[in-house]
Amino acid sequence: GITRHYTFNIQLQNVTRLCHTKSIVTVNGQFPGPRIVAREGDRVEIKVVNHVANNISIHWHGIRQLRSGWADGPAYVTQCPIQTGQSYVYNFTIKGQRGTLFWHAHISWLRSTVYGPIIILPSLNSSYPFPKPYREVPIIFGEWWNVDPEDVIKQALQTGAGPNVSDSYTINGLPGPLYNCSAKDTFRLQVKPGKTYLLRLINAALNDELFFRIAHHKLKVVEADASYVKPFKSNTLLLTPGQTTNVLLKTKSHYPNATFLMMARPYVTGLGTFDNSSTAGILEYQLPNSSSSSHVNIQKLRLFKPKLPPLNDTSFAANFTRKLRSLANRRFPVNVPRTVDRYFFFTVGLGANPCPKNQTCQGPNGTKFAASVNNVSFIMPTIALLQAHYYGNSNGVYTTDFPNNPPMPFNYTGTPPNNTFVGNGTKVVALPFNTSVQLVLQDTSILGVESHPLHLHGFNFFLVGMGFGNYNPDKDPSSFNLVDPVERNTIGVPSGGWVAIRFLADNPGVWFMHCHIEVHVSWGLRMAWVVMDGKLPNQTLLPPPSDLPKC
Ligand code: C2O
């Protein structure tokens, strides 16, 4: 592989959407940010220079960061943030991955505007396990606020209430024609008839899972979270925040007298308020021969709109997730751990913190919203966990007593317990190098059931099981899939259900795991794994770079 160099200048830029102009934090003035393109095996060096007043850090979502944990990016987990006027070079090698991922700011809610695609092409002497597409098109979903999202989360955390929702969803930064004052800000994909396009879909939205569909066109899924899957047809797709999916789009063989909308709108299972609007882009056929005089009048073309599933279509979600399977062939075998060294059972869900004295709170029953894993709402430390770990002084930074199981047995998806209060702490799980882990993630109903897309840094995991209701450790494992489980970095824990995942802790460092719904992260639905060094020199975390930011 070669080394690819990028410079990311974090700078303010005036951007207008929905007739609101505001100054937003961007990379190089671009919104969405620039693409990172590399081949499997390449080294990538990105110099991030902070020219804004906010502290910043960037995460390369889904990149495994083998031994290079210092480049992972979550603020106060693997690094202190890059302060105003400072810079930091993220340096990592891409191994064993190819496909679509994305990068985003990993501090506060700055990822609302600071994000962009990562495209990993197969190595030079290698090819796709599907016919080479005519063109490749990144399609990145996001959210737009007319106000500053930083104010939205600040206010929500102060009052304890749920945050205000965004004003629109976006496709490649553009809300599209279904919003007021937005028709000119529409993503247009011009295609030729009878060709195959590879769409690289990324859900970078903050707080919503999204359905996606193109009117009158069939899509074939070939890849998820930068791992190939057994190809399957699905006209509607579902992506949780943090998930990426590659699909093949075959265009119609004749030039059709029509324009087709592609549309995305949320899949919502929770109780709170949400943005129930739809973003749309346009798929338009180019004339077969641009030099031929055309009498086609675009205005007269028929406009087709796709039909998306109902808002809370949980069975679609479950079926779609179940269809994703690894290739599991000789060229791309699945490395799912067959034996398990450590079993974990984590509940994920919402809860509350008591309202501080002399304050009125607007969360459930006058409390403050919180969220937890095993009832621990994670408090961010003030120095980076990885630094504390590496220098052996975790004292006062974190403790290694993260519980293996939730505190008390209760019917997770039945009647909520009387006490909805969470515990708080900076607790981690410490794992010896090469521990094979099975983790069951169980949704709780403490404040209503809701789907939670859990994202694990530093690893891909295998989805070996999934179900509704309470996980049954005596019965459910008998139906686990160890043959062709999908390999990914983000999985939606179903509303009122559970997933079982396995991973091998072969990457030393400190690895964040959290819900990728940003408001749930802010409320504490996050924790970290500390993976110790192995015995061999190539099983140890590399030393920190000299420009690693200080807190
Ligand atoms: Cu894309 Cu820790 O997140």
What does this protein structure show overall?
There is one protein chain. This protein is mainly beta and 551 residues long. It is 6% helix and 39% strand. It has four helices and 33 strands. The two termini are 34 Å apart. Residues 291-297 have low confidence and may be disordered. The structure holds CU-O-CU linkage (C2O). CU-O-CU linkage (C2O) is lined by residues 59, 61, 74, 104, 106, 242, 455, 457, 512, 514, 516.
Q: Based on helices, strands and strand pairing, what is the structural class?
A: mainly beta
Q: Considering DSSP H and I runs of 4 or more, what fraction of the residues is helical?
A: under 10%
Instruction: Going across the biggest sheet, name each strand in turn.
Output: 10-9-12-17-14-15
| Mean of pLDDT | 94
> What portion of residues belong to β-strands?
35-45%
* Radius of gyration over all CA atoms, rounded: 23 Å
Distance between the termini: 34 Å
Helical segment count: 4
Q: Low-confidence parts lasting 5 or more residues at pLDDT below 50? A: 291-297
Task: Give the overall silhouette.
Answer: globular
Number of strands: 33
Heterogens:
CU-O-CU linkage
Major sheet attributes:
6 strands, mixed
Q: What is the strand and helix layout of this fold?
A:
Blueprint: E1 3-17, E2 20-27, E3 36-39, E4 43-50, E5 58-61, E6 87-93, E7 99-105, E8 115-121, E9 135-144, H1 149-159, E10 168-171, E11 188-191, E12 196-203, E13 209-214, E14 219-224, E15 227-233, E16 236-239, E17 244-250, E18 258-267, E19 279-285, E20 302-304, H2 314-323, E21 342-353, E22 368-373, E23 376-378, H3 385-390, E24 423-425, E25 428-431, E26 435-443, E27 452-456, E28 461-468, E29 487-488, E30 490-493, E31 497-505, E32 509-515, H4 518-522, E33 526-531
Parallel strand pairs: 1-4, 3-8, 9-12, 11-19, 18-20, 21-26, 23-24, 25-33
Antiparallel strand pairs: 1-2, 4-6, 5-7, 7-8, 9-10, 12-17, 13-16, 13-18, 14-15, 14-17, 18-19, 21-22, 26-31, 27-30, 27-32, 28-29, 28-31, 32-33
Bound molecules: CU-O-CU linkage.
